[in-house]
Specification:
single chain; 278 residues; Hsp33 domain; 2 domains; 6-stranded mixed sheet
Length: 278
């Protein structure tokens, strides 16, 4: 079992991408799911989660590594939709209920491995559980939550429960864990009330012997850099670079600007900096 609290991480993503509440909730759930998947990695491995539905968000992308670094974005951060019953954000409608969830793991081999499954609801947690059951044959339960108010992200976090083959009393333990999760309530509410990841694990595994194997910090951290962006730009044909030229406001200096999708960091270069023969 894995549990994570991502409130500050999701708030940083909201600020960087200037997302509406429903887009914040969708991105926050995806970042939280990526953090949980990243905890299953080791070394320099990475995982990318892509949820592509037919809703107005246009897709949500998040990735993570084994060290707790996550990043992500939504294609349309300004989506706004009516609330569902009980004043809940309609993440399923924003993502769409027809589409696919893709999980790509880069394990340092020649080619990354990608598994996919159709969306169940667009709410992400159910879709991820279905992915594990159908693509990896691992019975899983997942809970993700993001609570947002007018000031920003109040609480965010999640749980991933997997019962692996060979577990003693497999069916009994799976049934007990399922019942615990059903009675747990909203993860975001528990976190808002002060629950730690360890508390979430204890509540979800009530009646099942457990021990904490480790813990690590989760943070929003992008892998982009000026050097990496420069390498990409230098590889472009001269005509494409010419199309990217713009003039900075209040200056006659022409610059080439690139913006990272994941973190919205902007990098500016003078044309001579990108000359192939410099």
């Amino acid at each position: 079992m894995l549990a994570v609290r991502t409130s500050r991480t999701v708030e940083e993503a909201r600020l960087r991408h200037e997302t509406t509440p429903v887009a914040t909730a969708a991105l926050g759930r995806a970042l939280t799911a990526a953090a949980l998947l990243g905890a299953l990695l080791k070394g320099k491995e990475t995982v990318t989660l892509r949820i592509i539905g037919d809703g107005p968000l246009g897709g949500v992308i998040a990735d993570a590594d084994a060290e707790g670094n996550v990043r992500g974005y939504v294609k349309n951060p300004r989506v706004d939709l009516p609330l569902k019953e009980a004043s809940k954000l309609d993440v399923g409608a924003a993502i769409g209920r027809r589409g696919f969830l893709h999980v790509t793991r880069d394990l340092g081999l020649k080619e990354p491995y990608t598994g996919s499954c159709p969306l169940v609801s667009g709410e992400i947690a159910e879709d991820l559980a279905r992915y594990f059951a159908h693509s990896e044959q691992i019975p899983s339960a997942c809970a993700l939550g993001v609570r947002v108010n007018r000031e920003g992200v109040v609480a965010a976090g999640g749980l991933l429960v997997q019962v692996l083959p060979g577990t003693e009393d497999l069916e009994d333990k799976a049934r007990m864990l399922e019942e615990n999760l059903k009675g747990l309530g909203a993860v975001s509410s528990l976190i808002e009330e002060g629950a730690s990841p360890e508390d979430l694990v204890a509540m979800a595994t009530r009646g099942v012997p457990t021990r904490i194997l480790g813990a690590q910090e989760v943070r929003f951290r992008c892998r982009c850099s000026r050097e990496r962006i420069e390498e990409v730009l230098v590889s472009l044909p001269p005509e494409q670079l010419a199309e990217l030229l713009s003039t900075r406001e209040g200056s006659s200096e022409s610059l080439i600007e690139a913006c990272c999708h994941f973190c919205r960091e902007r990098y500016r270069f003078r044309p001579e900096e990108l000359a192939r023969d410099k």
